[in-house]
Amino acid sequence: MPKMLGDRTIIFENKPRIISYGSVVGKKEHEGPLSEEFDEYTIDSYFGEDSYEKAESKLQKTAVQIALDKVGLEDSDIDKMFAGDLLNQCIGSSFGNKERGIPFIGLYGACSTMALSTALASLFVDCGAANNAIAVTSSHFCSAERQYRFPLNYGSQRPQTAQWTVTGSGALIISNEGKGPYIDSALFGKIVDMNITDTNNMGAAMAPAAADTIMRFLKDTKTTPEDYDLIFTGDLGYVGKHCLYELLDKEGIDIKCRHTDCGCMIFDKDAQDTHSGGSGCGCSATVLASYVMHRMEEGKLNNILFISTGALMSPTSSYQGESIPGIAHLINIKI
Amino acid sequence: MPKMLGDRTIIFENKPRIISYGSVVGKKEHEGPLSEEFDEYTIDSYFGEDSYEKAESKLQKTAVQIALDKVGLEDSDIDKMFAGDLLNQCIGSSFGNKERGIPFIGLYGACSTMALSTALASLFVDCGAANNAIAVTSSHFCSAERQYRFPLNYGSQRPQTAQWTVTGSGALIISNEGKGPYIDSALFGKIVDMNITDTNNMGAAMAPAAADTIMRFLKDTKTTPEDYDLIFTGDLGYVGKHCLYELLDKEGIDIKCRHTDCGCMIFDKDAQDTHSGGSGCGCSATVLASYVMHRMEEGKLNNILFISTGALMSPTSSYQGESIPGIAHLINIKI
């Protein structure tokens, strides 16, 4: 049985393991610093489909298939699937996975979805409600731009605080048997709203939620940043990262020496003109299901925190003058 | 520890109980056959706010507060909240609950959300990952119409197969101690797509998913419809209900004598001009958190199945010619 600590950190008992993972990205991500880490890439924004939304569904379908194939599992071996994405009504997930016949739990956590889905999959496996579970999410630069900002054809300019939505999908298979790093604990985030309204500065809107989740977890587990090999945040980017440092500094917590952000890792800031870094559900998902897993399998990382961050607004809420509530979910992965 | 049966029905061990519930509805629902069942209603479509979306957030906030107040609990007593709605990026849930400081798990299951959130809350409570958990969802006729169909001002006509989105929110508190009906088991649905493309006939699109989930559950538990006092589906409406009967008839299963549909219960078909009945996340949520709970507390219902059904499309997927995938999640509630 999992155990719950004071501020709700959940400690798993049975070491739910990441027995497989798959990642697929677009052209820009393939040209970035993590190029060699990803399982597959496409240079076609449409991925052979006739719309960006269908391309995004295919990204999820592909990432899941890669993860299944690596360990020789089939859809029928999977007891639950946890999936979500940024598209209205999460159609990337429902259409990408509709043919599999796997019991489906649809999530909406914006860019926090990879940690959210993995935490839920781990809990199900830990308590016996699933033997094998899949966690998957995706984003697509083109489908996100036209939904959240402007159709690409407008050629609108972006401020330096804006981030670049990652085209990609990452999938993990969590199991109660097999080999791989295990999820030791998880903490579900609270919604934190510091009244930031600039939709071109999501990093700043999400940083307070990341700070809140990290502080709760360190307090619950009586650990310090130095106890971890590396602390990955999802997609705070260059601006949001510094907001996080400031917020934690005020509480006497210094994570700088142990911290990296998936949004800062996935693109080359100078060469790729991505301003404040990568974002989107696919950002932390593809980094987790490639770079992080590779380093853990190689024993270069033994104990990490992975915190995906999400901005829970919509274009409608922003048009109506509402602020941007943030959320951050955390998982602690060990080998 | 929960136990998983062959086709993934989850049997809970520790009787997670519904210790409280709250419901709030709009004017039309208040004027319907279940008028006396709801805790609260508003005759103002804006619920005192300046947009329909903000009104929907307030519905969720209100339903949760009613449920908390009934048992004298506060936000800090709740370990997890499971919430989702129909609005793009689920802003009804994030804005409606952002001030509570409760660890938040955002869901997207369209109109299946009430059974989905309750099943997840029950699992968390059953395995010790929460002592108290809230499940909540909402919908609003006006915010749904303008997002999915046309702005109300257009006065567009609706075909007879169309359903009427319920304005309302229902919330349950699930706990590992206290009194109330308990969740005996749950089954998470698979996505089922029978290639129906008519967005004015959601009932027909969702019925195959409901049939699939009901058949899986009856097979797993070796029970028949007659073993239950009543089988509630979410919002199939009058058209979808008959599709469900036909599909189950083919498999030799007759649920007619034990079946009712929340979409057929909440409005007066003839007097209220709601065509094929009610729909929306708030439909099954408000019926569960009022009528169903009252009958169980009175001992008039002792053992029921509650199956919320969802259509996992978006306006974008429909414009692109995609079909409507359906999903149905089930919970078995007993006293």
Number of helices, counting only DSSP H or I runs of 4 residues or more of chain A: 11
- Unreliable runs of chain A: none
Q: Name the overall outline of chain A.
A: globular
Question: What is the top-level CATH class of the largest domain in chain A?
Answer: Alpha Beta
Largest sheet of chain A: 7 strands, mixed
Characterization of the model:
Two copies of one chain form a homodimer. Chain A contains eleven helices and 15 strands. With 335 residues, chain A is an alpha/beta fold. Chain A folds into two domains: 3-175, 3-Layer(aba) Sandwich (Peroxisomal Thiolase, Chain A, domain 1), CATH 3.40.47; 182-334, Peroxisomal Thiolase, Chain A, domain 1. A seven-stranded mixed β-sheet of chain A has the order 1-2-10-15-14-11-12. In chain A, helix 1 links the parallel strand 3 (17-25) and strand 4. In chain A, helix 2 crosses helix 3 (91-97) and helix 6 crosses helix 7. The relative contact order of chain A is 0.19. The model of chain A has no long low-confidence stretch (mean pLDDT 97). The interface between A and B is large, with 62 and 62 residues.
